[in-house]
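Quick entry, no commentary yet.
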Amino acid sequence: MSEEIDTSKRHFLTVATVVVGSVGVVMAAVPFVSSMEPSARAKSLGGPVDIDISKIEPGGMIKAKWRGKPAWVVQRPQTALNELPKNDALLRDPDSDEPQQPAYAKNEWRSIKPELFVVIGICTHLGCSPLYVPQPGDPSVGPTWPGGFFCPCHGSKYDLAGRVFKNVPAPLNLPVPRYYYASDQVIRIGEDPKGSKSTWTEPLVW
């Protein structure tokens, strides 16, 4: 006598096997998909950063970190601002023609307010972090030093507006990030001023 095949039971078992297998694949894939999403820390590193400038003094510097890079705010005294034009003939890009800053910082001071300079502290040669050496004639740099930023790794020099000097390895001025004054005491780095129509794209390599 021939055996009868229960096709309905076979169909049920086939469907159940496929469903269970699919669930297993999805569950196994969840950790991999999750690992591809940016972590909360990574997201925060890409967001804007607020810097409290209420206690900064003339000649002083406040350091922060934005996108994993050193962000500096320097309070330049009026005497230092008066000296900036005297450096022009010594500089590679005195008028900041290279797009190392947003349009609202393309001026004599490379800043929104003359006295407060916001800059990314990364040398444009090989990515070292320069030293802040504001004192003119500082012996660590030389008697003709006007004050500014000095990278001891390979000798690149920038004035107090972050403009690079001629005859040094660094090819570009120090980069100025997007920023605005969230209040009289807070600078927000990573966003343009309200109402700004800037189309500037930040340098890919800082």
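second:
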Amino acid sequence: MRVVVKVGGSLLADEARLRAVLTALADGAEGPCVVVPGGGRDADTVRTAQAEEGFSDAEAHRRALGAMGATAARFRAVAPGLSPSLAPWDETSAATALVWDPALLRDGHPAIPETWDVTSDSLALWLAARIGAPACILVKSADAPPGSDAEALSRSGLVDAAFPSFARVFCGTIAVRGPGGHVPVPRRRAA
């Protein structure tokens, strides 16, 4: 089973950390894994273009998926040991680390709302659930407060608004890895 590791596009601004993270993943630091790229500055460009041009959230979602694909290509340039994948749920590659280009989602998927409520963080959880990953790790440029559950992380803006609902569906462990270290995300207890 592959672990899902979402690497934030914001790490493109920290070349040394990005190179260290991606090289470690390509070398097997997390074992077999699928790297989910964030959209980074290209996703920010989509947000700006939507405000200026007024296109729909569905179109913005498709363009943001393209931004993730562009980041995937950048990640492969930084760490050539990452193997490209369009459909990691069908992947039989022996490669240790795959990097996902979500191009196949551009035509829509019934489980994924096409709004800004869903970013690469929620898509990482969706993919983790789809492939039965034992864990989903979010590598971020900011630290998560210890003890923060998915709802608290969403309220703070560290993850997107849909993240808590995707977290409820995912059965594995979730963690945020910021510059200060690895922080497990506890499951919310039923009231």
